[in-house]
Hints:
Layout: E1 2-6, E2 9-12, E3 17-24, E4 31-38, E5 45-50, E6 56-58, E7 66-71, E8 76-81, E9 90-98, E10 112-113, E11 117-122
Parallel strand pairs: 2-11
Antiparallel strand pairs: 1-3, 3-8, 4-5, 4-9, 5-6, 7-8, 9-10, 9-11
Amino acid sequence: VQVVESGGGSVQAGGSLRLSCVASGFTDWRYCMGWFRQAPGKEREGVATFNWDGRTTSADSVKGRFTASKDNSKNTLYLFMNNLKPEDTAVYYCAAAETRWGCGLGANDYNHWGQGTQVTVSS
């Protein structure tokens, strides 16, 4: 499985960005995809997940501001980020896993990772 993110960049507080993640090479239709982020000196944090059965989960820190959406025809997971804050600055990673059990916000649920894309929010 290959995972490739794109769409990071720099924006002022209150602005918006869209991240994209394309995953390919799945051998099982039961898989999950998720977004994580890691700020300097902090642990990797789960942001949003998308399971094969339609279940989604979002972190409390981004609810109401970030929305994860999947285009099945393109096998692409998006993360729409609105009202960005300086504390959202981090490297954002997309991850995937083939599993019939589904995935949550824990990084250990995933075994395929993208290279990450930087998001910088200035005040």
